[in-house]
Each structure stands twice: as structure tokens, then as C-alpha cells.
Amino acid sequence: MLKDNLITGLDIGSTSIRMVVGEKPRHEAKIRIIGAVEGPSKGISKGVVVDIDDAISAISAVLEKTERMIGQPVGHAWVGINGGHIITTESRGVAAVSKVNGEIREADVERVIDNARSVSAPPNYEVLHVIPKSFAVDSQTGIKDPVGMTGIRLEVETQIIQGLSAQIKNLTNCIYRTGLEIDDLVLSILAASESVLTNRQKELGVVVINLGGRTTSLAVFEEGDLLHSAVIPIGSDHITSDINLLFRISIDTAEKIKVREGSCLAKEFKRHDEMKFAAVGGIEEGYFSKKQVAEVIEARVEEIFQYVDKELKKLARSGRLPAGAVITGGGAKLDGIVEVAKRVLHLPASIGYPHDLVSSLDKVSDPSFTTAVGLVLWGNQMVNKKMDLGMGGGFGSMNKAMEGIQKLLKSFLP
Question: What does each of the 414 residues of the chain score in pLDDT, given as a tens digit?
């Protein structure tokens, strides 16, 4: 029998698909992770579905493995969405306070956020999140939570996150056809942020960088608010391709070299530091230079962080975030990546690991699981609040568009 206190996060990446199941605590403050599974991703490239049948098969395989692990069916999940088609814009909402005595209620807050959401979207785009940044009551600005205050006019400054309707429908269609219901779609980098950042870091100013297989996504926070998010179309798979081309070896051998011997610090190796391909499990004859491998990795990682710095320069935050950079995702496990980040970004840097949870599973402490774990934490926050009015730093989702998409897709399913 399906327990109603389970929260599931589904992270569908270009390289791997990860599913994490959390058990909602009854008397504990932290959620307990009881299942964590990953499997190879197929039919997905740079956050976009390119082959529906392959994607359905890959998601189904991970779902079945998860159900076997926890010993019961998984009926619904909070799903991460990523990709270059995601755009962010700013919008303002205005509403008159409905109560005669001028007291602001939660219904007024919902209404003003919904008004901000009504901003004209580009053709073929759907709203994923409306993120309240600050409220104003009459002439008083900079308010975080106006409920209970008194006034006549309520305003809100928001950030709108939107995605291409076709890409959203392709992704949701794949998930529904595995038998899973979707609790909500959540921008992957926001879920990862929930997993690795503290409220203090968000207040001080921080950038979280999720280094995935085909893409690198980032989010910038300051004073508890999301300032900016972006997706860079370069990831750790590009490093594998660089090694593959350098030594003219198979992709599988190149991946093994990157994972087992890869480093971002070429200065730590000498030219004669060599190793047999066979020593890392490769089938090729001969040797490879560990210094050459490190030079290739360092160059590509520097390029990724240079793109991140360009995004920070757009906000006038380059080298000006006191809580620094938090690097997570599978690519964060590269040796020396923190040193390169400090050098290129001119910021303090660290690796981001999931926190605020309890689990006997070592796997969930891996940076590659931060998004999936973050989706569980996000879901737990939403369930607790019973409404989409933000979490932690004041962001949440207003996903009325998803309800229509779900009904539409289900009408076509057998």
C-alpha cells in the first residue's frame, strides 16, 4: 500500500536519471531519505527530450529500480526541469486589499502574485515559477511577508521563470507514460540550491553552480532573493570528449580516465607522469600523459567558470558575493575544481553537498544527487505550507499552467 508520507524527487539529466524518495518525518525536523537510485539517461540532450521512447524506457527503468529498493510503488514525484529554453523575466503585480479594515490576508498575497504572473509571455512559453522578491504596502517597500499588515494597495516584485511549451509537454508526456503523476515541475538549479545552500548564504550573496553532463546551470542569491539564473551549454561530458579527441581513444576509456585520474591542476604533474590505458580499464594499447589530461580538463573548467563570471558581470556581482561560489553536480567531483573556481571567479569557493536530511544511504551525500535530494526538500516545504508562496529565501511556484498541461496530456493517453 502506498504511504502518503513519501516525497519523491526525479532529476532527469542528459547523462543520468536520479530518483530519491524521502519519508516525511512525524516527530523529527529533518526528512529521512529511504531510497536513492540512478540509471543511464537516454533520449535526453541538454535538458530537452530528443527521443520520447528512449526517455520513457530510461525513466521507467529507474522507477522500477526505486520501487524494488523501497518495497512499494511510487505514485507521484516532484520533477526537475532544465535546459537552454528556460528564460527569466521580471514582473510587477498590483492588487487592492480586499478586507474593509485593510488587513492583508494570504488570499491578497496570492492574488497579487497571480496578477504578476499574468504578464504577457513570449509565444509558446509556459510559466514555471513566479518568485516573489519583495512586497510593498502603500508607500512602504522592501517587505518580505505582508500578511497581517494594514494597507490599501499591495504590490509585489517578482521574477518569472518560463520554459518552451513544447519542451515542457514532451517531458511531462514521457513521465505520465511511465505511470507517474507529477506533483510539480521545479527548475533544477532552484532544487539544487535548496539542497546545498543555507539561508545565511542566500542573505549574504552566493552563486550556486551545478556542473552537469551536458549543461552547467547557475543561480545567484542575495538578501534571500533569487537575482538571476542561467544555463550554460557546456558540461563535464565536454571534458570527456576533449580527452577522447586528444588521445584518439574510445569515449568509454576517456570517461574512465577523467573519473579516475582527472585533475584540474596541471601544475601538479610532470611530463613523464604516464599511465597505461589498461590501468584505468581501457582496451587501448599504450600510455597517456596525466599532465596532458589535466591541461585539457583545466582549460575546459576555466572556460565554464569564465561563462559563469560573464553572468555575474551582468549583475555587477563579479567578485562581489561574500558567501562565494558553491559548486555541485557530478562535475564538482573533479580534483582541484575549487582552486580553479577561486582563481577565475575571484570568490571563495566550496563543494556543495546535500544537507538537512537523515539517511543511511551514502549515495545521497554525493554532489551528483543534490538536485534529486533538493526536489524532495522542495516538495516537503510545499506540502508543509499547503500553498505555493515560497520557501526559505522566498521563492515558490505558481503552476496553474501545469494543471492544464496535465489534463491535456492525460486526455491523449490510453
Answer: 345 689 999 999 989 999 999 998 776 667 889 999 999 999 998 889 999 999 999 999 999 999 999 999 999 999 999 988 898 888 999 999 988 889 999 999 999 999 998 877 788 999 999 999 899 999 899 898 999 999 999 999 998 999 999 999 999 999 999 999 999 999 999 999 999 999 999 999 999 999 999 999 999 999 998 999 999 999 999 999 999 999 999 999 999 999 999 999 999 999 888 999 999 999 999 999 999 999 999 999 999 999 999 999 999 999 999 999 999 999 999 999 999 999 999 999 999 998 877 877 888 889 999 999 999 999 988 887 753 444 333 333 434 444 444 444 444 444
Evaluate whether 146 touches 394 at the Cβ level (below 8 Å). no
> C-alpha angle with apex 322: 298 to 312, nearest 5 degrees?
55
Q: Is 98 helix (H, G, I), strand (E, B) or coil?
A: coil
Amino acid at 250: S
Q: How far apart are CA 146 and CA 149, in angstroms?
A: 6
- The dihedral formed by the CA atoms of 41, 264, 83 and 372, expressed in degrees to the nearest 10: 60
List domains and CATH numbers for the chain: 6-84+165-195+355-412 (3.30.420.40), 87-164 (3.30.1490.110), 230-350 (3.30.420.40)
